[in-house]
Amino acid sequence: MGHDVIPVLMADDETLIRAAMATMLDLEPDLQVVEHVGSGEELVASWRRRVSAGEPVAVAVIDLQMPGLDGIDTAVALQELTPDVGVLIVTSHGRPAYLKRALSAGVRGFVPKTTAAATLAEVIRTVHGGGRYVDPSLAAEAISAGDSVLTAREADVLEFALDGASVEEIAKRAHLAVGTTRNYLSSAMAKLAVANRYEAALKAREKGWI
Fold this sequence. Notes:
The chain folds into two domains: 6-144, Rossmann fold; 152-206, Winged helix-like DNA-binding domain superfamily/Winged helix DNA-binding domain (Arc Repressor Mutant, subunit A, Orthogonal Bundle). By secondary structure, it is an alpha/beta fold. It has helices at 15-26, 40-52, 71-81, 96-104, 117-128, 136-145, 152-161, 167-174, 178-192, 197-206; strands spanning 6-11, 31-37, 59-63, 86-91, 109-112, 133-134.
C-alpha cells in the first residue's frame, strides 16, 4: 500500500450496508478498506493487531448503534490505543445527545447513513488530515435541542426504557446494577416531572435528548 493511500477500517453490524459502503469507498483511488467487521469489539481487536504489527494508523468508520460496544465507546477504546486516530461515526440515529457525546469523546466526523459515497470519502480525507466534519443538518438539530438536563448515564438508561423494558432488562443492557439503574431512572423521572420511566423516555426523545 502506497503512502498516499488512506487505510480504512469499518465496523457495522448490518453486513449488507457495511459491504456496500466498503465497495463504494474502495472505488476511490486514495482509500482502501483494509477490513470491515460486525462489532466494536472486533474492530478494537483488529486495531490492536495493526498497532502491534506497526501498520500505519487507519481511519475508523464506525456505526453508532451496535450490540455490545457502541460506536462512541469503540472510538474511545481506539483512542486509548492510538491517541491521534481519526474516527468517523455514521448513524441512522442523528440525535443531538449522541452528537454531543461523540464530540466530547474526540470523534472527528459525524454523518448520517444517507450521506453520498463521494461525501463520505471526502469526510474520511478530512478526518485523516486532522480536520473535523459534522453533517450540517445534525449540527443544526443539536443546537436547537438545547442543553439536556439529563446526565449521560440518565440518558442511557432512558434510551433503553423506550421499548417498555423492565428495570432488570435495562440494567442488563446498560451493564449496570439494578439498584443503580433504578436510581438513574428515578432522578431522570424527577427532572422531567413524569410518573414513570416510559413517559420520561418519550419526553426526553421529544426534546432530542436521547
